[in-house]
Design brief:
The complex is a heterodimer of chains A (336) and B (109).
Chain A lengths: L17 H7 L5 H4 L46 H14 L3 H10 L11 H13 L10 H14 L7 H9 L3 E5 L3 E3 L3 E4 L1 E6 L9 E12 L7 E4 L2 E4 L1 E7 L19 E4 L2 E6 L4 E2 L6 E12 L18 E11 L5 E2 L1
Antiparallel strand pairs in A: 1-4, 2-3, 3-11, 4-10, 5-8, 5-12, 6-7, 9-10, 12-13, 13-14
Helix pairs in contact in A: 6-7
Chain B lengths: L1 H12 L8 H19 L8 H13 L16 H16 L3 E4 L2 E4 L3
Antiparallel strand pairs in B: 1-2
The chains are: A alpha+beta (336), B mainly alpha (109).
């Protein structure tokens, strides 16, 4: 069974003609790229100029800037249901037609249309096997990171590819959440959640930061709010809409006047931060903590130096929603 | 390596006179070295204990210290988590803190 998503018309490159647009995604072909593969330096990248034989999934002709870690690996056979699932997943995750065509190009497939189809899924599975990744045909963070690093290396020869390489690599940024659980004792209810950011090879760890958003309230009674420090001022803990959650004007999480980045560094590719709202105490009879958060990874360069609640045009690369919801009964017990 | 060398030279040239004995000087140096050593092994950015203490007191001023929070003032989590994070670093380094008026200081060894 051959499954195929609707073909999306590619958006034209800014300031480029349709001809140059096609060239930018067909650099592997000497005819299209205007560079002879055979006359080029030995490290030149050459993707398949023609689609592989349908029965030959090994992509033997595929030449890449980054050698496969496991070039002889053969992917397991995906079921029809897995292929359909992967098509749905990739269609939701890779929404830029140009990026779809670039991925098809890297995988050695025809790339005259941004099709997310069975052929792409099988090629992704082959790529995943050769990179020792979980074989599921889904272009998740780890697969995006390897594809992006390949394109980044190719951008050494084709500099115009660099923005597309960065875009793919940023899809490889992971925001992992752990310890998202309440710890209730006789006297308090706490949550000490942890956010770990993984930045793939090819990107600089310190170019990325966390920004937290908050919505909701912390009430000490039916009509009285606890106070919190927000953007340098003590205010009621009552936030009807999502707004940046920061004690100082700098929206970056854990920033201070002396340093914007104060995350805990795990290694060259990873940093983490924690968050611990409240805590709700057993003596606060009738208190209602109902806070909803959205922690996001942003490019440092996009985050303004000061905020009064929003980030302008900055967009999160990846976000995670979480909450802190505790009610303290008249008897001093906690419920969530 | 270099800090040990500097301390070694300093111990050689400092006279055991005045109101500080040689043993006290050595003890003071060991304490200072210990601070740097533990802080550099905390897997965080480089800072010494005094710098870390300044950071702790900055976050205490922002509210959210679970041990010294004004009545009615809570934390959405940013300051409280950072305070707990820094306190954990001190604890792992074996450095005790004491609360003085409205801020933390390093406890005497």
């Amino acid at each position: 069974m051959r499954q195929q998503s609707p073909v999306v018309a590619p958006k034209p490159h800014a300031g480029s003609s349709p001809t140059t647009q096609k060239k930018s995604h067909f650099f592997g072909s000497s005819k299209e790229a205007g560079t002879s593969f055979f006359n080029a330096p030995s490290k030149i990248v050459h993707h398949l100029a023609t689609p592989p034989d349908k029965d030959d999934r090994s992509l033997k002709q595929h030449e890449l800037a980054v050698p496969y870690p496991n070039p002889t690996a053969v992917p397991r056979e995906l079921t029809d249901a897995e292929i359909a699932d992967a098509i749905n997943y990739n269609t939701g995750r890779i929404t830029d037609p140009d990026q779809v065509m670039l991925i098809r190009d890297v995988l050695g497939l025809s790339h005259d249309a941004p099709s997310i189809d069975e052929e792409l899924i099988r090629a992704v599975a082959d790529w995943q096997a050769k990179y020792n990744l979980v074989v599921d045909g889904k272009i998740g963070p780890k697969t995006s990171a390897t594809l992006g690093f390949e394109v980044l290396q190719e951008s050494n020869l084709v500099p115009t590819l660099r923005p597309e390489a960065i875009a793919l690599l940023e899809k490889g940024i992971e925001l992992r959440v752990s310890n998202n659980v309440y710890t209730d004792t006789a006297v308090q209810s706490t949550k000490d959640i942890r956010f770990t950011v993984f930045v793939p090879r090819g990107l600089r760890r310190d170019d990325y930061v966390l920004v937290n958003w908050v919505r909701g309230h912390m009430r000490s009674g039916p009509a009285t709010f606890f106070q919190v420090r927000m953007y340098g001022n003590l205010v009621d803990a009552n936030f009807p809409n999502f707004q940046v959650d920061s004690v100082d004007a700098d929206p970056i999480y854990w920033s201070t006047a002396a340093s914007r980045q104060n995350f805990n560094i795990d290694n060259a590719r990873q940093f983490h931060a924690t968050d611990s709202p409240g805590p709700a105490l057993n003596t606060e009879h009738g208190a209602d903590y109902d806070l909803h958060f959205r922690m996001g990874v942003y490019r440092l360069a996009d985050v303004p130096a000061a905020t009064t609640g929003n980030l302008g045009r900055a967009r999160a690369i990846v976000s995670r929603y979480w909450s802190y919801r505790v009610r303290v009964s008249a008897a001093g017990t906690f419920s969530h | 390596m270099s800090i040990y060398f500097i301390i070694f030279i300093w111990l050689l040239i400092i006279p055991p006179a005045g109101d500080i004995s040689k043993q006290q000087a050595i003890a003071a140096c060991h304490k200072q070295v210990s601070k740097h050593f533990h802080m550099n092994n905390s897997n965080n950015r480089d800072f010494d204990a005094d710098n870390l203490l300044d950071r702790l007191n900055y976050w205490v001023q922002q509210g959210g210290d679970p041990d010294h929070s004004p009545a009615g003032v809570k934390s959405t989590g940013e300051s409280r988590s950072k305070i707990m994070d820094i306190k954990n670093i001190f604890e792992k380094a074996g450095i005790e803190l004491k609360w003085v008026n409205d801020h933390y200081e390093l406890a005497a060894p």
